[in-house]
Amino acid sequence: MSMFGESNYFVLPEEEVSPGDSWTLDAPMSFPAGPAAMSVEVELTHTFVSLEGNLVTLSFEGPIDMSLAVESMGMSSTGTMSGTMVVDLAEGRYQSQTTQTSLDMSTGGMTMKMSSTTTLELLPDP
């Protein structure tokens, strides 16, 4: 099963949209992480940026809340996620996505900040 299988993270709107239109999706997820259980709540506002041929560019941003429970110890995180994605409407799949995530994480009485940038790109078949 896909890690995002139970979420609505990858759903485009059913109604017609135009550049500049936006919509908000909640994407709750929970999954096992080894001996731990993790839950993630993401509420992303997507904005239709452009359409060139079959490729649609969307931007997204919103808050993220995570919790991880490992036996008697837990971790919680709050922060934001933003980025852009390109979806091939003819193929029905992502072509690329860049995501910036900024989190404030708390565990065992300590607080840490984490920032990351993730870039995904669909590679052609060899």
Write a brief caption for the model.
This protein is an all-beta fold. The protein has strands at 22-26, 29-33, 36-52, 55-70, 73-88, 93-107, 110-121. It has no helices and seven strands.
Number of strands: 7
| Series of H and E elements | EEEEEEE
User: What is the arithmetic mean of pLDDT?
Assistant: 83
Q: What is the terminal separation in angstroms? A: 25 Å
Shape: elongated
Beta-strand level of the residues, as a percent range?
over 45%
Task: Provide structural commentary.
With 126 residues, the protein is mainly beta. The chain is built from no helices and 7 strands. Strands 1, 2, 3, 4, 5, 6 and 7 form a 7-stranded antiparallel beta sheet that branches. It is elongated and about 50 Å long.
Helix-strand blueprint:
Layout: E1 22-26, E2 29-33, E3 36-52, E4 55-70, E5 73-88, E6 93-107, E7 110-121
List keywords for this structure.
126 residues, mainly beta, 7-stranded antiparallel β-sheet, 0% helix, disordered N terminus
